[in-house]
Amino acid sequence: ERPDLALPVGTTLDRYILHRQSAFRYATGELSQLLRDIALASKIIHREINRAGLMDITGSAGSGNIQGETQQKLDVVANIRFIRALKNGGEVCAIISEEDDDIIHTGNSQAKYVVAIDPLDGSSNIDVNVSIGTIFSIYRRVSPVGTEATEADFLQGGRQQIAAGYILYGSSTLLVFTTGSGVSGFTYDISLGEYILSHADLRQPEAGFIFSCNDGNVDDYPVSVQRYLFRCKQQRLTGRYIGSLVADFHRNLIKGGIYLYPPTLKAPAGKLRLLYECYPMAFIAEQAGGKATNGLQPILDIVPVSLHQRSVLYIGSRTMVEEV
Ligand code: P6P
Q1: b/e per residue 285-298 (b: at least 16 CB within 10 A)
Q2: What distance in angstroms lies between residue 22's CA and the mean position of ligand 1's atoms?
Q3: Could you read off the pLDDT of 44-96 as tens digits, one per residue?
Q4: Separation of alpha carbons 119 and 80, rounded Å
Q5: pLDDT in tens, 155-170
Q6: Interacting residues of 151 by C-beta distance below 8 A, sequence separation 6+
Q7: Who has greater pLDDT, 103 or 23?
Q8: What separation in angstroms does the CA of 315 have from each of 18, 191, 192, 273?
Q9: Which residue among 4, 26, 63, 242 has its CA within the 20 to 30 Å range from the CA of 130?
Q10: How far apart are CA 194 and CA 173, in angstroms?
Q11: Residue 188 per-residue DSSP state
C-alpha cells in the first residue's frame, strides 16, 4: 500500500504521522511519538552541525569507539542527543549505537520498541563541510515488557524492522523514512522549526547511470566487482563517491545509481554495520523499489549474530544491483 498521496506536499511531519498512523503496522501512538522524538533530536543535531565550526566542537574528541575510529566531537554530541531524546520520549526501552559497545538501557522497561542507530555517519566529513547523516532502525521488542531488553531484541533480522530512516544534513536537512508502506521525505524548514513533506512517495529508478565506491580499493575487490566496475567505465557511467553513505544513497535514490562497499583487505567482511547501516538502508531501498544485497543474498535476509557485525553492501537501482 503506497503512502497516502492525498496528503499534499507541504504537510508537516506531525500531521503526516497522525494521518498515516492507522497505516503503521502497529497502529499505536507510541511509534508516532517515537518518530517525533527522532525528528526532535535531528533538529538539535542540525543546529549543532551548522554552528560546529563556530563552537570549536569539530575535530577529534580524542576518544575512540568500538569501531576503533577516532570519535569526532560531533559524533559524541549526536550520540548523547539521540540517546537523551529517545530516553526522555519514553517509547524506547533500549538502544544500540555505533558509538557504544553495549546495549544502552533507557530505564523505560514498559516501552515496546528498541532502536539501532548510527548517530552521525560519515563523520570524517565534518571538518571539510561535506554532508553527513543519521541512520536509524526500529524494532518492536521480543523480550517481555517490564523486563530489561536483551540482544535478541536487536538480532531479529532485517525483515522484522517496523520502521527505518535517515536524516541527511546536506544543502538542506532531509528526514527520509519508511514504516513498511513506501518511503517519504521531509525537508526541515528552519524558519518554522518543522519538517515539511517534500517527497511524498520516493521511488528508486529501476536503472541508473551513477556508481559510488571507493575506487582506491578496487584492487582489493572481488574479480566480479572489478569486472562490473570496468563495464560501468566502458559505458562511461558517472562515478560519484562522497564518502558519506547517506549522501551517496540519497543521490542514487533520487537520480538512480548503485553504491558499493565490497570486501577489502582492511575490511574483509565489508566495512558497514549490518544493524544500524545496512538493514535500515536496505529496508528503505526495497520499499522504494530498489535492491540491496551482500553479493550473495538480500541484506534483509542476512541472519544477524552480533550487534556490531559488518556486512558487504551493494544497494540502489534494481537492475544495477542485480548485475554486480
Ligand atoms: P571509505 C563513513 O565512515 C562510512 O561508514 C560511510 O558513510 C561511507 O560510505 C564509507 O564509510 C566510506 O568508507 O573506506 O571509502 O572511506
Answers
A1: bbbbbbbbbbbeeb
A2: 37
A3: 999 988 887 776 666 666 666 666 666 558 888 999 999 999 999 999 999 99
A4: 9
A5: 999 999 999 999 999 9
A6: 103, 307
A7: 103
A8: 31, 34, 34, 14
A9: 63
A10: 11
A11: E
Residues with CB under 6 A from ligand 1: 121-122, 124, 214, 243-245, 248, 271-272
Pocket test for ligand 1, best of 127, 246, 261, 314 (most atoms within 8 A of CB): 261
Cell numbers standing for residue 127: 571538518
Residue 126 amino acid letter: I
3-state secondary structure of 215: helix
Q: How confident is the model at residue 241 (pLDDT cuts 50, 70, 90)?
A: very high
Within 10 angstroms of residue 234's Cβ, the number of other Cβ atoms is 8
Q: Residue 250: which residues within 8 A CB-CB, separation 6 or more?
A: 133, 166, 168, 170, 174, 176
Q: What is the ipTM of this complex?
A: 0.99
Percent of the chain whose pLDDT exceeds 90: 78
Cβ neighbours of 223 (radius 10 Å): 7
pLDDT of the residue at 70: 60
**Residue 171 grid coordinates:** 544543502
